[in-house]
Write a structure and sequence with these properties.
It contains five helices and ten strands, in the order E-E-E-H-E-E-E-H-H-H-E-H-E-E-E. The relative contact order is 0.20. It has a six-stranded mixed β-sheet with strand order 6-7-8-3-9-10, sandwiched between helices. A four-stranded antiparallel β-sheet has the order 2-1-4-5, covered by helices on one side. The chain starts with a strand and ends in a 15-residue tail after the last strand. The protein has one domain: Rossmann fold (3-Layer(aba) Sandwich), CATH 3.40.50. The longest helix is centred in the last third of the chain and has 17 residues. Helices cover about 30% and strands about 25% of the residues. Bound molecules: adenosine-5'-triphosphate and magnesium ion.
Length: about 240
């Protein structure tokens, strides 16, 4: 379970997140929906420990307070991150980009090979791209590669920041299918997806939170089966 306790952040003197409290169960796919500038990226960066700004409160994963774990050690806990920007190393191939977070945490090569097979079964569109330079990928292909890279280490918690933004419909469909395979392949995984446009998420989340004016509230779902549509969804 992922717990956010009184998480607050100020950027350039402006409060962005105000005492957020949330519990996100293991096995659930949670969506955080908020307008541009609502603080979605800020919240994911706090969970990852990338905070060059004032932040308070605590993030607890399966009972462990992450403030005691340095950001570069968090992937070792099984936390994967797919940032919103295109952040692949352009001088690496796609395969090198995927392997990189595993190498950073010194995973044995055989284990990395196995992880790669697992990820390619979830995101098969990556197989023909592996030998290509990351520099030549389209925006949509890069999003798939960022998803794959987050899954190379993300066995307990995966954070995906606006993965559907700018994806062409056919790629959005492939991405959705990949997430469904992921839910099936790693049933214990907690998946956290941010979006500004709720409709892009279709029936992927089992619970949806709304981030507005620095506060986070449950907008729907929560008790239904994994992947069920959120109920009561107040419109923007
Ligand atoms: N480096 C920065 N300097 C000043 N303000 C910042 C900086 N980074 C973020 N902010 C401000 O913090 C607030 C939250 O930003 P954040 O990027 O977390 O929002 P977001 O919900 O991810 O938005 P988007 O949908 O555009 O990605 C915004 O008002 C933004 O203008
Ligand atoms: Mg953002």
């Amino acid at each position: 379970m992922l717990e956010l306790k009184e998480v607050s952040a100020r950027i350039a003197g402006v409060p962005v997140l105000r005492a957020i409290n949330a519990e996100i169960a293991r096995t659930s796919t949670a969506a955080i929906v908020g307008r541009n500038g609502a603080g979605k990226t800020t919240l994911l960066r706090i969970i990852m420990g990338f905070v060059p700004f004032a932040a308070k409160g605590s993030v607890v994963l399966d009972g462990k307070d992450l403030s005691r774990v340095s950001p570069h050690d968090r992937p070792r806990l099984g936390i994967g991150y797919g940032p919103e920007d295109r952040v692949l190393f352009p001088s690496f191939t796609v395969e090198e980009n995927l392997r990189f977070p595993c190498e950073v945490i010194r995973m044995p090569t055989k284990a990395v090979d196995r992880r790669m097979d697992e990820v390619l079964a979830i995101v098969p569109e990556l197989a023909p791209l592996l030998a290509r330079s990351a520099a030549v990928l389209s925006g949509g292909q890069a999003k798939m590669a960022v998803l794959g890279r987050s899954l190379m280490v993300g066995t307990r918690l995966v954070l995906l920041d606006e993965p559907f933004q700018g994806l062409a419909p056919v790629l959005a469909l492939q991405y959705t299918e990949a997430l469904k395979r992921l839910q099936g392949a790693r049933p214990d995984l907690t998946i956290l997806i941010t979006e500004s446009n709720r409709s892009l998420l279709k029936d992927i989340p089992s619970v949806t939170w709304t981030l507005e004016r620095g506060a986070m509230t449950v907008a729907g779902g929560g008790s239904g089966p994994r992947g069920s549509l959120p109920e009561a969804a107040p419109s923007d």
